[in-house]
Design a protein that fits this description.
The chain is 89% helix and 0% strand. With 111 residues, it is mostly helical. It has a domain of 73 residues.
């Protein structure tokens, strides 16, 4: 359909339109098949470069949640609530989980 509109508004012949389409197809197929291994290697390098940032982010999230948890547990203990010990263990477990996950990921992937 677009070919008909193109032919209507230009003085190109049908053979020149078809040859131009074949040229575009051959160039695009070569570009797609040419650098697959290079693309995978580049993606691997990018993931490895972001891995250190991601583990550092997990450590920071663990530290911030530890501080928030400490304040919340202190407020519960100060007000005399019964579930203060349960809350303390939950916050502490969450912080330890984040630190352990970051450490295990570093050692598992060898980065």
């Amino acid at each position: 359909m677009w070919c008909l509109k193109l032919r209507k508004y230009s003085k190109l012949s049908k053979a020149s339109i078809v040859s131009f389409g074949l040229l575009l197809f051959s160039v695009s197929s070569k570009a797609q098949a040419g650098d697959g291994v290079g693309g995978i290697q580049k993606a691997t390098e990018l993931v490895q470069s972001y891995f250190d940032v991601g583990t550092t982010l997990l450590y920071v999230i663990g530290a911030v949640s530890g501080l928030v948890g400490a304040v919340k547990v202190y407020q519960k203990w100060s007000s005399g609530e019964q579930d203060a010990q349960k809350s303390a263990s939950a916050w502490f477990g969450a912080c330890i989980f984040l630190v352990v996950v970051a450490t295990v990921l570093e050692s598992f992937f060898g980065v």
